[in-house]
Amino acid sequence: MAAYEALQGFVVDDKFSSAIIGEDFSYRVYLPPDYLRSPSRRYPVLYMLHGAGGNYTEWSDSFLPEQADRMITSGEIAPMIIVMPDDGGQTYWANWSDDGPRWGDYMTEDVVSMVDQRYRTLTSPRERAIGGLSMGGLGALNLAFQHPDVFGIVGSHSPSVRTQPDPALWFLHDQDFWDNDPVWLIENRSGLDSLSIWLDVGDEDVWLPNIEAVHQALTDQGLKHEWHIFSGTHEAEYWIEHVPDYLRFYGAALND
Asked: Which residues span the domain enclosing 136?
């Protein structure tokens, strides 16, 4: 890939077949500089989910591979594998109602198991992080809160949180909606105190009030988390600016 020739590490695009969805999906993976030179070494893994209307290339558009490569090469963060998966579009990374597609299980079962089979990964929850922006930020929160036995670290960047049923989420009915509402999960699920949690939003982001509700729920439940309101709105320039902040969080948590 010509766009990544200057990297010390490697960016690879590939596909795999999802048994849960019954389709093939693309993904992009960043492998750290010493991956090929250290064939016996295993690495922690960061999964980064795209937003609505995006795909597996979205985090590359925010220069995530370049920033990770720079920070790993300089020693600012430890080496990690970064996986940028694709989904079916605006799935919210959730299991849909009425026997619909199980996009949550696709992520926690199919994608994770495929990565662990194809790459030299460390596989404990404390060595596996999930993050995302906008829709992907909401999906990351929900999947980590639903599966703290899979993901021990979660970063949510400007998540498009809805705290009440919304026609935009027509595929989630009744309890399925609440099972994908981070505030409800915080108040009703156990085991979340084992998670390392990061939450950020721009001070002019339309989702700010709802994201503040997530922060307040975490605070009310006594769950430690990093909470940041930065200058900015809900746009690519905001996420590009803060990719180094995100990587410092993930790098520290994955090596804690």
From this structure: 2-254
At residue 212, the 3 state secondary structure works out as: helix
Residue pair 124/135 in contact (Cβ under 8 Å)? The answer is no
Q: Is the dihedral of CA 43, 128, 71, 77 positive or negative?
A: negative
| Count: domains in the chain | 1
Residues sharing a CB contact under 8 Å with residue 149, sequence separation 6 or more, in sequence order: 125, 191
The CATH number of residue 109's host domain is: 3.40.50.1820
Each residue's pLDDT tens digit, 94-128: 887 677 778 899 999 999 999 999 999 999 999 99
Amino acid at 136: G
Cα–Cα distance for residue pair 49/88, rounded to 1 Å: 12
**pLDDT tens readout for residues 141-163:** 999 999 999 999 999 999 999 77
Q: In what order do the strands lie in the sheet with 153-157?
A: 10-18, 23-31, 81-85, 45-49, 128-133, 153-157, 196-202, 226-230
Contacts of 249 (CB under 8 A, 6+ apart): 155, 196, 198, 226
CA-to-CA distance for 49 and 43, rounded, in angstroms? 19
How far apart, in whole angstroms, are the C-alpha atoms of residue 122 and residue 151?
12
